[in-house]
Structure of Putative outer membrane starch-binding protein:
Amino acid sequence: MRNLIKYILLVSVFAGMVACDSLEPIDENRLDFDYVSTVPQSAEGLLLHGYNGLIDQFIFSEVATDDAVNNKLNNGYKRMALGELTAQFNPASRWNTFERVFYLNRFLEVIEAGEIQWNRDEDINALFYQRMKGEALALRALHHFYVLQAHAGKGASGELLGIPYFTEFIEADGDFNKPRLSFEGAVEAIMKDFDDALDLLPTDYSENESDVDPWYADVDFGKYKVVNGGQYNLRISGRIVKALKARLALFAASPSFLNGQNGYYNMAANTAGEVLNTIGGISGLEPNGIEFYTSDNDINSGEMIWRGSIGGNSSGYEERMFPPSVNGEGEVNPTHNLVMAFPMQNGYPATVANGFDPQNPYANRDPRLGKYIVVNGSSFGGGTINTGVGGGIDRLDSIPQFSTTTGYYLKKLLRPDVRINNDGTTTGKRHYDVYFRYTELFLIFAEAANEIGGPDQQVEGMSARDVIGAIRQRAGITQPDAYLATITTKESMRELIRNERRLELSFEGHRFWDLRRWGVSLNESAQGYFDDGDNYVELPAVEIRNYQPFATYMPIPNAETLKFSELEQNQGW
């Protein structure tokens, strides 16, 4: 890990850590420690580094799962899925995320020194200190969670291990040789930082006095708004921290980790339910949450718990993903596996017995299918897309590394109103990063509540059945939902919840980690479906997955275990 700290800005800020004694550096307007620890703008810059590297919906790690393939031969996730995953080559590694942790730890040291005056008003100054410390603790917890999600696992000893937890800034020549905590020890360390942050952060940043938390009752509202007003509403808040706690608790409780032990399912359900009840519970499910990213009109949708700032007009993602006939590169191709996970419109699984017609495969299907995936005959990006015979450059395998390999193109996450013109010009649209949606929180609640007591277990006034019913009704499943009524056991509801999570959160970076935490096989071959002119033909193995049996748990980077003797590698790597 020592190599990480050498590359962060702090090395140049605190140049004395690495400067040679024999050299006298000239004044190059570098910011020294005294300056950073006393000037508010520079100190806050350390905190803002904690907002770098937040994981958004544009990762496209699904191409390493049964949900999609990438048609670019050099794509890292593709190479990993085809068998190249090792401790030396791991595109899903997050070990470098510790870099942000050290920024945050330095910031916490700076503000604890008490030499920064955020505002001349004593009350406002205290509020700034409180909020920024809360932000730093919450972000430190989140970045540790990112590393835990990617690198927790059974060590060579057979013990379920977490990660090292860093709560102090370490100088470049300091001791980074820290052992991994137990898995639950790491979870509890993250939870503690989240809980400490909750004691310091407002639930929401707002201009409305009615939104102010009771513990600020004695604070002048004019002063409160200077520190916690709506101008900060993209920063981490108490509401976001609670959602992140629910996500962490569900991860910890999952079969590959604590498998329901020690109350983490209860924590996930109760914490998620508490937040969901602030928006009205089931009635608060955003009606337009299926397509949360299709036009400028839904940018401030009530679907968002946490998002990034809105960018200017751009077309980069569409240029990568649109089909070739509308001047895209068709990079990510959803699989037939995923297409068949969408039920019939009546809610029953897509089987012949339930009305599925293999030669008219997209008729009478869950409406989400047409919203998320470009199927044969779809209108998209300014043209009609045919992936079978007669489809031209959109036809399956027509142009290597551009045309689909599965018979499908990606629609979800893309702005359908972007245009990529034949003359090379583009009509771009605004995009933004999404870090947490209410739909994910509803699904966290449903999964945890079902594991506690089955489909109808009441937690915070809701049940898994209530949540899944509302999500499927919003999706356009025929009501009453006859298939949902047949679900009576925890096991059958578990499968339905997992499938709904697969559909609702598709292409948002979840499936790659869900398969691992559930202990589900990683080696289901990617399938395709192709109109050969006479019939639709199934392609059973477009891409054969080749994960080692121990790949449920990802490796610690080999370079780190070689340098640091205290770091125990996960089994098999």
Q: What stands out?
A: Residues 487 and 493 are 6 Å apart (CA to CA).
